[in-house]
Every structure is written in structure tokens, then in C-alpha cells.
């Protein structure tokens, strides 16, 4: 079996599961945010269960329109808070403790290798980076799982992606995944598990792995996953709040499709509007002028991402035609960035630094685009109207390319700044 | 069960930000959400669509976010069913979970044109084009998913399951 099949089998009490099989499996952790939890809560009440299945395995994280951007958003957030109090949930994160959910849960060791996790947020697939089966579901799935501790799944076929060769300078997890989505398309892995392998992945730091698994959904994938190794163990050792279980994929296992990438041929990559699959080499897009730069999100708001952007922007100024918004993904990341002097570098460069929020990534708040405006962002989606007006545009990139573009006022590469 | 209505055609990869833009997600009110249905590609869609009408799209319908607001808005706008070449997986499970009828049919997706009169025999997965007298087959639905439809969605299905467990003295 593949690692995905093994985790699913264990959680439904079977020795073996097969792709296509429908199973009911036990979940280790359930999460929802201020957009999806209110519906989950009303559906949970409709079920009429006396209690939640486990008050320490339900995480409610108001991160999308929080800090509360308007009265309606405040009402939504309040629903989470009141339910969490009523049912004494152990994992409710108020603003101040809150971070972007998919950065916060791994950081806090609340998701661990071998887990089966569902979340009413499509980027729940992020935790595959730890060797967990983790997937986005809807609010009703969350509601029923809150009552029963179980969820229904179709066991996915697994697709193998092998990355070999030497990474080019400044190229990282974001470029690899944008390149991959560009190769297979936004439905290239529909209903499938995406298993990332190869020497490049074995040497890829955890933050790069989180970025890659985070965007599995943008290829239609059910989950992204990386077999845990020494890097995983190092990451989870001091954090894990529950005992991790390390699964691997059997050597003789059959994948429905295998794709191999020579990383020496993968350039700094930018996805152009309006699909993540419109991947192009960043160097070819030098004529694209930019109005806004966003560095943050569940995809690229981690400390290492901020370091990368700071390394570019240090001693430089944001172009006068550009507003640059930097959003550390969690409070811990925010503090570390402050202590390391990264925030100072950004502010000195005349960027703004925001409290953790998903905000602009989904056109919510803290950097919404006007008609005709164009952004380059380290986020995950560039659909029509994603960051604001239906006639605005979003280009997706890694943090270094986004920071260079902030300086130049157009899309550019670190090479152009002599980096 | 039969659904009959006019076809509204959409292309490939219709994402959830197009179906219901995130800026309207500061509410869970289904009628409020329905007012903005498909606003990303057709600003007046919610005013034009009539009860029972059918959305016909290409591949990967509903890709992107997990927001259940997307199938909820479609249902609340009165849309009778969605036919597509294929569906993104979270949208697919959300639709069954909330009881929105969806049909995978590459043939119907390709051949049906805007405004044509469509009738769907949901029980047998047969899509009739009353304007051209053509008939298309929808991909079959797994047994468990049929159970969900018959129960009226995942909440009702779960209620029954919990009641059964209780009657048997389980937890």
C-alpha cells in the first residue's frame, strides 16, 4: 500500500484498503474557520448530538476575516467563540493566539505524522508535509465528524511525483509546485493523492514541503503527502502533542501515474491570471507592472519565507508605485521575525506588516485590489476576483520573486538586483 | 424524481470564487448568498435564473475553496441540478452532503446548448434534451452516495445512524 492507503486503512480498522473503496474512517483532528465553522455549527445542532465526540480534537480558528473586519464578520467569529465556550473546546484560538490555521497547527504540534485530519478549508492538505493524511472537506462533513468522530472517504488513487537534480538559486517548494501544477493542470490530480518523492524532496526543508502539500488542491488533489524522514522527525520531536506514527509507501506499490522532474530545468516560476496552472518562468514576465505585493498566507507566511523576502528587500525601498504587505502567519512567527529584525527591514523598506490573517489572499481585507489593479502574491490562488475586483489580477510566486517585484515595480528576479 | 428547466452554459474550471466570491462570505444566510451566485462571470445571473433551471458546465466544476456556500448558493437560487463533465472533489462531496443534485456526463456537458430545455430522470441518471430530442447518460453514482440522496443529505443520514446505534444500545 501507499502511505495514503496505510493511514486510511488504520483509521477505518481494516488491514487493507483499495483505491475507489468507500470507507468511514476515524479522524484525529477536525478544523474549521470563521467562514466555514458557522455552517458546521448550525448543521451540528440540526443533528441533535448530545455532545461533540472529543472536545480536544476540534480546532476552531478565526483567521479569514479576523481580526474582525466588519460587523457581519464579527458575528460569524462570535458564533465560534460561543460554541467553543458552550462545549468547552480545548482548541479555540482567539485573536492574539490565532494564526493562519495551516501554519498554526503544525507549529503547535497539533497535527502529527500518521494522523487523519479533516478541515473545512481546502488547504487542509498542507499537513501531508508531515506524513499525515489530511484533506479539505465541507462544513457538513465537519458537523457530522464533530458528532461522530468519523468521516466518509473514497480511497484515492495515488500519483507519484519524483524531483531530482539540483535546485536553481532562489528556487524552492513554491516554484516546484507551481511548475508541477503548470505541467498537469488544475484538475491533473483530481480525486487523487499526490505523493512527492525524490532526492530534492528528501533535502527540502519542512517549510518548502508545507508549501508544496498546501497547493495539492490547486491541481485538484485530494491530499499531498511526503513520507516522513529525518527532517520530519526533527520538526515534530519538540512539538508533537500526540505520539506521531511514521508510515511509508511500499517499494513495489503501483501508482496510477508517475511524473519526474529534473529540477535543474525548473526556473523561478510565476503563475499568471486566472489559474494556478498558468505557470511561466518569472524571467519572461518583466513587462508586467505591479500595484501590490503580498507576502504571507498559509502557503508562504512562515518564518523562512519572511527571511527570504527580507534578504531581497534589505537596504532597498519598495517602488513608489507599489504597496507591499507582509503578513507573518502566526504570532510566534511574528515575534521571531521581530527579534531577528526582519520586521524592521520590511518597515525600513516602506512595506507594511500586518497581524496574522488570511485577509488579502481571498479578497477579504488588509489589501483588496481595485478594478484594473495587479498584484504579485505568495498566496495560492489567482482566480477571477480572488483578491478583490473581478477585473483585478493576481500573479503567484515565491517570496523572493515577490520581494524583487516590490522593488522594481514590475515582475522581476533576484538576478536583476545582483542577488 | 424529475427535474426540468432551461440550461445555463458555463466553461471549464468554474471555481468557487466565481460561484460565490469570498467577499460575500461574511454571512451564512443562503438567500443573501444566492443573490451573488456566479457573479464572477455573469453579474446578472441570480436575477435571470429561474427555479428548476440547470447549470451545465465543462470539466472541474467547483474547483478551489471548500466553501459549502457554493452549493448552498446554487440550491438557494433555485437551480434544480448541475451537470458537468467532471466536478472538483470537495464540491462533489459538498453537493451530496447538502442534497444538491449533480450529474457527471461528458456527453451532456458537450452537447447541451444555452437555453435548451432539459429534463433529468434523477433516479436513472438519464438526461433528456427536450429541444433536440437527444438523450445522454450520466455516470453512475456509488451506492453510498445514493443513500445520502435518499436520506436527504449527510445530516439526515447521520441522524438515522445515531438513532440506530442508540436503539441497539451502542454509543
What do you see in this structure?
The complex is a heterodimer of chains A (419) and B (171). By secondary structure, chain A is of the alpha/beta class. Chain A has 2 domains: 3-261, Aconitase, domain 3 (2-Layer Sandwich), CATH 3.30.499; 269-417, Aconitase, domain 3, CATH 3.30.499.10. Chain A contains 14 helices and 18 strands. In chain A, helix 6 (173-184) runs parallel beside helix 8, helix 11 (303-313) crosses helix 13 (342-348) and helix 11 (303-313) packs parallel to helix 14. By secondary structure, chain B is α/β, with parallel strands linked by helices. Chain B has one domain (2-142): Aconitase, domain 4, CATH 3.20.19.10. Chain B has 8 helices and 7 strands, in the order βαααβαβαβαβββαα. In chain B, strand 5 (117-121) and strand 6 (126-129) form a beta hairpin. Chain B is globular and about 55 Å long. Classes of the chains: A alpha/beta (419), B alpha/beta (171). The interface between A and B is large, with 54 and 41 residues.
Notable traits:
heterodimer; A: 419 residues; alpha/beta; Aconitase, domain 3; five-stranded parallel beta sheet; 14 helices; B: 171 residues; Aconitase, domain 4; seven-stranded mixed beta sheet
Rg of chain B (CA only): 16 Å
Q: Note the beta-strand portion of chain A.
A: 15-25%
User: In CATH's first tier, which class of chain B applies?
Assistant: Alpha Beta
Give the strand tally of chain A.
18
- Poorly predicted parts of chain A: none
- Described by its quaternary structure, the protein is heterodimer
State the fourth-level CATH superfamily of the largest domain in chain A: Aconitase, domain 3
Shape of chain A: globular
- Looking at the structure, the CATH topology of the largest domain in chain A is Aconitase, domain 3
Strand pairing plus helix content of chain A: what structural class?
Answer: alpha/beta
Amino acid at each position: 500500500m501507499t502511505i495514503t492507503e496505510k493511514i486510511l486503512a488504520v483509521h477505518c480498522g481494516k488491514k487493507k484498503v483499495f483505491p475507489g473503496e468507500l470507507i468511514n474512517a476515524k479522524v484525529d483532528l477536525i478544523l474549521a474557520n470563521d467562514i466555514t465553522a458557522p455552517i458546521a455549527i448550525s448543521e451540528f445542532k440540526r443533528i441533535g448530538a448530545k455532545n461533540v465526540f472529543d472536545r480536544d480534537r476540534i480546532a476552531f480558528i478565526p483567521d479569514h476575516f479576523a481580526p474582525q473586519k466588519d460587523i457581519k464578520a464579527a458575528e460569524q467569529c462570535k458564533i465560534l467563540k460561543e460554541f467553543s465556550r458552550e462545549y468547552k473546546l480545548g482548541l479555540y484560538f482567539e485573536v492574539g493566539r490565532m494564526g493562519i490555521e495551516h501554519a498554526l497547527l503544525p507549529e503547535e504540534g497539533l497535527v502529527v505524522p500518521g494522523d487523519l485530519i479533516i478541515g473545512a478549508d481546502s488547504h487542509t492538505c498542507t499537513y501531508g508535509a508531515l506524513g499525515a493524511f489530511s484533506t479539505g472537506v465541507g462544513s457538513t462533513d465537519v458537523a457530522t465528524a464533530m458528532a461522530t468522530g468519523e468521516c466518509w472517504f473514497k480511497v484515492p488513487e495515488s500519483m507519484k511525483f519524483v524531483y531530482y537534480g539540483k535546485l536553481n538559486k532562489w528556487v524552492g517548494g513554491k516554484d516546484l509546485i507551481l511548475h508541477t501544477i503548470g505541467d498537469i493542470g488544475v484538475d491533473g490530480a483530481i480525486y487523487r493523492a499526490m505523493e512527492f518523492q525524490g532526492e530534492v524532496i528528501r533535502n527540502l526543508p519542512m517549510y518548502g514541503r508545507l508549501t508544496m502539500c498546501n497547493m495539492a488542491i490547486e491541481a485538484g488533489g485530494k491530499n499531498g503527502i511526503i513520507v516522513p524522514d529525518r527532517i520530519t522527525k526533527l520538526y515534530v520531536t519538540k512539538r508533537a502533542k500526540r505520539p506521531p506514527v511514521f508510515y511509508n509507501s511500499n517499494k513495489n506499490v503501483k501508482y496510477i501515474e508517475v511524473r519526474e522532474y529534473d529540477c535543474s530545468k525548473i526556473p523561478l516560476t510565476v503563475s499568471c491570471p486566472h489559474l494556478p496552472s498558468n505557470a511561466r518562468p518569472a524571467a519572461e514576465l518583466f513587462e508586467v507592472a505591479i500595484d501590490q505585493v503580498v507576502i504571507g498566507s498559509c502557503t508562504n507566511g512562515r518564518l523562512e519565507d519572511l527571511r527570504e523576502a527580507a534578504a531581497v528587500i534589505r537596504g532597498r525601498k519598495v517602488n513608489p508605485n507599489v504597496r507591499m504587505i507582509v503578513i507573518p502567519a502566526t504570532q510566534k512567527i511574528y515575534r521571531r521575525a521581530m527579534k531577528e529584525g526582519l520586521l524592521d527591514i520590511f518597515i525600513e523598506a516602506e512595506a507594511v506588516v500586518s497581524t496574522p490573517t488570511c485577509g488579502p489572499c481571498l479578497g477579504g481585507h488588509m489589501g483588496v485590489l481595485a478594478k484594473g489593479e495587479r498584484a504579485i502574491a505568495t498566496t495560492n490562488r489567482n482566480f477571477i476576483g480572488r483578491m478583490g475586483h473581478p477585473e483585478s489580477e493576481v500573479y503567484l510566486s515565491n517570496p523572493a520573486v515577490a520581494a524583487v517585484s516590490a522593488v522594481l515595480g514590475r515582475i522581476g528576479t533576484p538576478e536583476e538586483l545582483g542577488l | 424524481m424529475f427535474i426540468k428547466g432551461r440550461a445555463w452554459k458555463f466553461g471549464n474550471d468554474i471555481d468557487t470564487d466565481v460561484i460565490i466570491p469570498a467577499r460575500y462570505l461574511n454571512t451564512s444566510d443562503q438567500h443573501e448568498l444566492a443573490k451573488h451566485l456566479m457573479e464572477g462571470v455573469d453579474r446578472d445571473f441570480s436575477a435571470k435564473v429561474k427555479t428548476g433551471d440547470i447549470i451545465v458546465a465543462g470539466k472541474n466544476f467547483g474547483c478551489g475553496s471548500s466553501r459549502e456556500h457554493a452549493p448552498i448558493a446554487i440550491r438557494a437560487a433555485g437551480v434544480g441540478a448541475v451537470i458537468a463533465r467532471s466536478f472538483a472533489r470537495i464540491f462533489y462531496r459538498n453537493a451530496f452532503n447538502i442534497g444538491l443534485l449533480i450529474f457527471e456526463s461528458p456527453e451532456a456537458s458537450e452537447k447541451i446548448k444555452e437555453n435548451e430545455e432539459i429534463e433529468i430522470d434523477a433516479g436513472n441518471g438519464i438526461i433528456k434534451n427536450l429541444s433536440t430530442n437527444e438523450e445522454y447518460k450520466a455516470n453512475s453514482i456509488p451506492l453510498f452516495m445514493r443513500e445520502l440522496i435518499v436520506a436527504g443529505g449527510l445530516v439526515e443520514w447521520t441522524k438515522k445512524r445515531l438513532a440506530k446505534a442508540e436503539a441497539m444500545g451502542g454509543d
